[in-house]
Amino acid sequence: MSDKKGDAKKKDRPCVKVYKQVRKNPWIISTIILAIIGIILLIVQATSGVSANTAAQNLVDYAAAQGAQLEVVDVKEVSGMYEVTVTIEGQEGLFYVTKDGKSYSSMLLPMETSETPSQPTQPAPTEVPKSDKPEVELYVMTHCPYGTQAEKGFLPAIAELGDSIDAKIKFTHFFLHEPEYTETPNQICLREEQNDKFVPYLTCFLEDGDADRCLSEVKADMTKLNDCKENSYDAYYAADSALSEGYSVRGSPTLIINGAQVSTGRSPAAILATICAAFNDEPSACSASLDSANPAPGFGWDAASASSASAAQCG
Fold it and tell me: Residue 252 pairs with which residues in a beta bridge?
């Protein structure tokens, strides 16, 4: 009997074993506590967000408060956020809303980099849809050298055509250059709220990219500009962004005429000819003689060298 009792003493019960292990390694109990806390946090996070429909409605309400009308087409969960498909001005676009329904973005950027960087592609030549008054949209980034190159050809062409077209410079739904986060609000707010200053400002800005000098030179109303950047810019850019996505814009510059992507050279003469091909009846301005040399990429109004490609994009 004594041997059996001795054997029983040697065989610890499970709870005793755990106690001894904890005494030897106190990190075990810390790990258990952290695991419990983690489970609680997951439960809280899973229950503290808003529904997909509520998140979408928050986006619609925010846009409406800024003067933009969005119509929700679809909502689904993507990468831990709500992907909201909307229509704005007849074009579809995507927005991403956080699970708490308090913040949004017009795009998600992957942090994984591919081994081979993607090459910008130029859309295949497209027959330009015709209309009595063509709608012409140039999508750019403010600091893309090829976008500024296209703008320098675009401005003389649309100036020649005047009110015979509905022309606008708009902005892509993605940025690639850090200064664009501060410069895009300048240009969008001038375009929308001080339109008579927009082209003079842009003409100045394309010289050297000095925004402060150009705002002073065109005598922009800085109080109005700052108020716009604080309160209205997000909605204005959301409209550009949705249209850019709706047109499947993949690079700066991208020219849209009457709702179709078209290819063109970047000289004033080439852009004039491309736009004029969209008229049912060409106005006399289409016979104007404009500079046939491509502007140089980047800032400055010099002509491009012979080796400068006129089809390159940032994207």
Answer: 314
Write out the residue range of the structural domain in which residue 66 sits. 52-105
Query: Is residue 208 domain-shared with residue 142, that is, in the same domain?
Result: yes
d(CA 253, CA 165): 19
**Beta-bridge mates of residue 94:** 85
Q: Which comes out higher in pLDDT, residue 246 or 118?
A: 246
SS3 state of residue 61: helix
Q: Which amino acid is at 51?
A: S
CATH number reported for the structural domain that contains residue 62 in this entry: 3.10.450
- Residue identified by tokens 């509520």 is 54
154 lies in the same domain as 192: yes
The one-letter code for the residue type at 122 is Q
- Is the pLDDT assigned to residue 16 strictly greater than 70? no
What does the pLDDT look like over 132-183, one tens digit per residue? 999 999 999 999 999 999 999 999 999 999 999 999 999 999 998 889 999 9
CA–CA dist 70, 29 (Å, integer): 52
